[in-house]
Structures are given as structure tokens and as C-alpha cells.
Amino acid sequence: MASTTDAPPLMLALRGTQGVQLQYGPPNNQPVEFFTSVKVDSRFMVFSPHGRYLVYHTPTGVQLIDIQNQETLELGEGTVLVRDAAFSPQEGYLVLWDAPSKKEDNSCTVYDLKSRTVKAVYSQLETTWKITWSSDDKLLFLMGKDQTYVFGDPDFSTPVCVPKNNKIGEISISPVSKPYHVIVFNPYKSTPGFVRLYRYPSIDDPATALAARSVMKEDQVVFKWNAQGTHVLFLAATDVDEKSYYGSSQLFLMNTSSDSLVISLDQEGPVHAWEWNPNGESFCVIYGYMPGKTCIFNKRGDRVHTFGASQYRNGLMYNPFGNLLVLYGHGNIRGALEVWDMTHMKKVCSHDAEYMTYIEWAPDGATFLVATTSPRLKVGNKHQVWSYTGQLLLDQPYAGELFQVCWRRAPPGMYKPPDPSVELGKNFTPNEQKKAAAYIPPSMRNRVGIVGLEPEAGASVHYAAQVQSSPGFGQGYKAGIPGLTMDEDAKKKAKRKKKPKTESEGEKREGDEGTENTGVPRSAPQNIRADHAGYGHRRPSDSHFGSGSPSSYGSYPSRYPRYPPGPPRRPSLKTEGSHSTHLRTGNSESQGERRPSQPDTEKRTPKPKPNKNAPRPVAASPERLAESDGDENQMVSSGDPERDKKIARLNKKLAEINVLKQEQASGKVMEKNQLDKIKRLDSIVKDLEKLQLSTILKKK
Prior knowledge:
By secondary structure, this protein is of the alpha+beta class. The chain has eight helices and 37 strands. α6 (641-665) packs antiparallel against α8 (681-699). The chain is elongated and about 125 Å long. The termini are far apart.
């Protein structure tokens, strides 16, 4: 915590079903000695701007606590019906609002806290009872039902100014005095409304306005001034829009130098949050449809920094010194917090805050409050205090419903701003959120040897040894995952699902048991299987097989077991005049493999060019192909590639029909599409004869 030596300890106030409580903040976290907890129902609880007073409601009336002098004041039985309260900026006046039985009855009372007397009484509605004060408590702006009044100190009973030309929907005064700057919103029914900036006392004549901006179809306008009172942001929003159910919003910027502009937002959607930095030099905006963008703008409306899009942000709050910013999600957004150092634009920490409904920085600027309150959530109510470094200082559940929790405020200069670069050090690593691990099915957990899967913590070492010593580990097996054995049930299921091979597919090759005689599973990549079969590039030291040592098997990726090689795979070579002729040989020279004794510069025999004077081969007849059991080795080339392709396709159909006829002869029940295929035999034979005839005529 960064504070001066004479700074008072942090203080928290809680209001809920257990009444009103006052306690110290971390590290004490104990109840305040001079305040006795009141276990009564309370409608409101408010701290004064500088933290001297605390006002709250009880069934017997409003209680005012002078924390500085440690005394309690009762404002009388006439305050039993009071619904809410507010202080003036300099803590000179207290405004109480109650709900009268009749509209014409007085409902707003102004108390002078110095003389402890009633200063003025007004008749105000619930939506307009909060009085707008100047920063020095000298001016009071009161918005009535159809009229706005301005009162001046010391007489708050007679207005000093009554604007009559234009109706005022919203009004706000700059936080600095002399001169006073006032911004007002003038709504109109049939024409666009206007937002105008004036210099007091002229707040009614449009000709004297310093700046003006028209707003179209806006239901409400909200104003926010910077600390110096020279620039003001205002958000014009509608409740319902033609494009979106959530309405539309637009952000504007004005200054006392008569400049007015629209803040350019590069993503469509509403403005979720916008705040001035307490230093008054920049402001932050969260806008756009989720995931929204978060950007920093300077006083001229230029974008100077972008935090990027995030689906967990819809709120922001600066600490009182403006050097730390917390971005958070609340409401229907997951509770996630990010604390940023605004001096170096560096993320300090981030953590989750589930079910968060309220957040507030402490006056020291180094800790902040996170709470889950009612009526948003009526169960699991609690409040937490976090340090800006990510340390949880307090986690206190609440027995019942917690309606409100807030910090006691402090006057400026009471605390020193925290310095993240000093307190965290140069080698500080931000507390990033852990990324969610990839989902692993329960049946695949704690397995050893599975590609891309590490054993979970606590996996049995005996289990790993048992898997490695199992018969399927490190040998040729039918399972497609290296290192994973197949249990008996899986083997039975695999046998039941295995489709019977037809006679056209040929007999199984000798020694082929699912690993292609190489000891490598079929699920391995082609280049790994080719290396075992003798196709891939291999170092001379890797060409001596059969030694059984791991080095003799070549260097293969670690995720595939190293198996002793089997007999070389039979290749298929395409030669002129034949299609996919299978060579029944295991000669490594015919496979294009170089022996270690052969020099690297040896050139392969070039492919001979076709001789035009050589006799042309004759295509096979349809009768021979239909009776040849689909053997493509008997077909010869006709000399025309396109014609050869058509003949090959017809020959393939004849072979398939021949297989179907044999199955039909053996008594197998044929399906409709298979019977239709057999009926097309004559048309296929005729097409094949035409191709042969056209080939002969063309050659002649």
C-alpha cells in the first residue's frame, strides 16, 4: 500500500440483511471501535466526498456519523420516509429526498452541515431530485418538472437565474470554478435536439454558446468532464434502434475553445464504458459488439493506444491517480479482471472474479474492492479486496444478502500513488491467465506412448512398465497408434467389423498381416513406411539390416517405434504397353534402390522413346477381357492415350460385371443396382468393339 505516514487506514462500509457495518480494510480487517453495528433494515448508505461523514437510514430516521470527530447525529423523526441522500462536493450540504404522498408536497430538503439547520426545501421528482452543485458549493442547479432553476449561496430559497427560452433535459457544470462552464441538452419533439456549451451566467441564449452539436433521435445524454474542466465527453444514446434491439449510441467531444467533434470508433456496436483519466489528458472507451475493442484517446480525439478485442470486457475504472487501469467484465459477461500500468502500457496482472457485480478502487490507488451483491445475485454474496499486483488480501463471505459495500473516500493528497516499476521490479512477469488444456477423453487419459499425450500427474509407473512389456509394444501389430495395445474386446470388435475381401481384390500377399511385411503400422506416414521398404533416402550405415541394434534401423521420428525391417515391399512399375504391371520379384536393383557400393554420380538408364516404325499392338478383345477375371496385365496399348483410357474404363467395368456374375452363380442374392449393372454388359461390349474398330480404321 502506498500512503503517507499520517494517512488514515482504509475503511469499508457494508449494508445488508445484518444491518450497517463499518470495518477497517487490509491488513487490519477489524470492526471500527467507535461504531456499533446496527442490525436494522437500511434503505441507503452514502459516504461524503472527502470521507468525513457517513449517512445511512434506519427505521427511526436518518443517522449521520461524523467519522472525523467520532460522533453520531440524529436528523429527527421527520426523516423516516427518506429514500436517498447526497452530499455537496465540499461536504457543506446534505440533500435528502423522500417520497411524499402527494406530488405537490415538498420532497427535497437541503441541510447545512456546518450550522446543522435546514437550508431549503423543494418539490422534486424521483428522476430529477439529485441537485447539480458547482465544485465550490456556491451554485445549485435544480431541475423541476418543466423548468430549471439556479440558486446561489448563501440564499438557496430564491433563484438567481431561470432559463425560459429552451427546455433543459440534462445539465452539467465543470469541476472547476471561475469561470463556470455549463453544458446543457435541449431536447425537441419534432426536430433534432442540441447539446450546447455555455459560460455562466449565459445558459439560455443559443447565440452565446461556445460550441453546439445536434443529436438525432436521442433518448438520453450523459456528460463527463475532465479534471481541468476544459473538455467534456457526452454520450448520446437511444433505447431502441432499427438495426439493434439494444439501441444505438454515439460519443462526442467538446472543449471550452469552441471545438466539437465526433469520436471515430472503428467497430460497429454500442459504447459499453467510457471514462476520463484523472489526469485529464486522455480517456478510455470500450465499444463494439462482442468481442469489443478497448482504446485510449487523447484530448484531441486521436486514438493513441489499442488494447485489442476481448469478449470479457465491458467495464473500466481508473485508480484515483490515473496510473493504473482495471478492465473487467460484469453483468452477463464472465468476471475477468485485467490491471494495466498506464505509464508503460503494460499488463500488471489478470485473474478471474466470478459473479462480480461491483468494483471500486480504494483511495490509496493500490487496492480495489470486488463484490457480489443483491439483488443481482441473492446467494453467495461476498466481498474481496485485491492488490493491483494480483494478491488477494481479503475474501469475506456474507451471511445473508449484501446490498451495498463501498470504500470510505479520502481528500486529495492523502495517499501517494503506487509505482509498479518499483514495487514489482524490472523482472516482473505478468500474471497471465492459464490457457485451457486440450480436451482428452476419459478413456485416453493416463496412457503411455500415445502420440501427443503426456501421462497425467500421478500416473502409475507400474502401469507404464506393464504397457511397455506387453506383446504389442514395439512389434508389428494391427493397432494404428504406436505404443497402444489393443485389448481382447477391441480385437473381437475389429474382426466383426472387418469386411470380407472379394476374389477380384486378389489373395493376400504372403506374410502381410497388417504391417506390409515391414513391421511398421499402416497408420504411419508414407515416408516412414517407405524407409522400411527400401524406398527413402538412407545413409550407408543404415543399409545393413538384421543386426537388431537400434542404430541399424535408421533415424525415424520418436513418435513411431523402431521396428526390425521385413522383406522389401513389392513395387508397381508402369511400362510402355502395360498398365500397373506387378513384378513378382524382390530384387532391390529393379526397385531403383542404390547399393552402398554404387557411386552417387551413376545415372539411371533414360526411358526409350517410342519407335514410329515399330508394329502397333492390337487392343485386347472384349471376349478375352470378360473371361480374364479382370486381369489388366493382358491389355496392350492402342497407341492413342485417350482411347486407351476409355478402353481401360470399359475393361474395369467388364471385370466388375464378371465378379458379380460369379457371385450370382454361387447363389448370392444380388441387389437391384448390381442386377442393373449386369444388364449393361452387352452395351459395354458394343462400346468396346466400336473403339477397337475406330482404332483400326484410323490406323489404316
